[in-house]
Here is the input.
Amino acid sequence: MSGNTPNSPVLPGAIYTALRSSILAQLDPPGSTITEAAVADRFGVARPTARIAIDRLVTEGLLRREPHHAARVPELGRDDIADLFDVRAVVESAAAALLATSAEPPAATVEAHHALLRRSRATTGGASFTDEDIEFHRSLVLGQSSNRLARMHALIMGEVELCIAQLDSQRLIGVHEVIAQHQGILDAISDGNVDLATARTRAHIWGARDKLIARYDALHPTES
Here is the structure.
């Protein structure tokens, strides 16, 4: 960040991007406190600039902030995971059903799928595929015709991204399994099969939910 002045208008966006990446990579792990002072020092900017980036992450659900307290990276519990993925299944399966009525998957979703394929071929099995996975699901919902459905999805995507990043980093699901499931969703949409597009989208999301919950239960045996 050196060479930029604290009042540069591009800095809040750059700080947001860097913090977002750090949170999703769990370099700022769940439970971490993210203060304006610490962010300002970390990036060499003024506190108001740091506040803009933090506020944006709070709005997106990647940070939480209680009144009179610093922002924190959410520690998602078992009920949080179950609720998030159940809501996500409702929204995304509805989006897939709408897309199947026209039998045309969004170009951005197809490209995200191809990006995931390229990632799987170019890297070893330990490489992260979080960005491509998130883009597949976000573009799927953005590509359908209902703006309200897209807004509903945006409200939960920050926390969903935290879950997807956790799923990826803990290697609970392999890239080839994700690719196969994504391909199945795209095929059902392309075939105009509303019921199958709905079922495959729900199964894909519920499968991820169940893996995350099983992992959570293994780490917190007294809570399950």
Notes: The chain has two domains: 11-72, 78-219. The first strand starts at residue 33 and ends at 34. Residues 11-72 form a domain with the Arc Repressor Mutant, subunit A fold (CATH 1.10.10.10).
